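#struct-help
A.M.: can someone run this one for me? Single chain, 172 residues.
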Amino acid sequence: MKTNTRYALTSLLLAAAFVAAATTARAAEYTIKWGLVTRGDMQHKYGEKLNEVLQKATNGRVEVKTFPGGQLGSPAAILEGVQLGTIEAYAIPADFYTGADPRFGLFSIPFLFRDTKHANKTLADPELNAYILNMAESKGLVGVGIRVAAESMYFGAKKPLKGTSNNSVFAA
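D.P.: on it. Structure tokens below:
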């Protein structure tokens, strides 16, 4: 009787092991490292959402690991990682790409766009959009998308500003 019980128990354990092995979650076949220098902003949230969508669409075969707050290095180091292929994706303002192509510096021109609506409308032009996305291709970078996250405010003066205007206080 003990032999039958031992045999049944061994069979049950083997069957459970086979079921567990068959249903164990597999590791992703491909991991995308999403490098960011910021934390908690729309780029960070986009990386997390991209992971969610890709995991679902690929049955877990593709995973996006988000590395916010410069965990993968400085902007220049992350850009170099993308160029070398050690980092798969990077989302930053265009002017950080000037190390790859100085033309990206044009987007740092103060008041280049009147407002966010004007910027989005301008950048949505198919010809301009394609041109910008392909600007650094010869440097090993493939543009995927252009988004306006926020307006840039530039403020400068020859002398310190002190006083009030529109209920705001200016002080140098």
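A.M.: thanks! Confidence is low (pLDDT under 50) at residues 12-17, 19-24, 167-172.
D.P.: also worth noting: The chain is about 40% helix and 10% strand.
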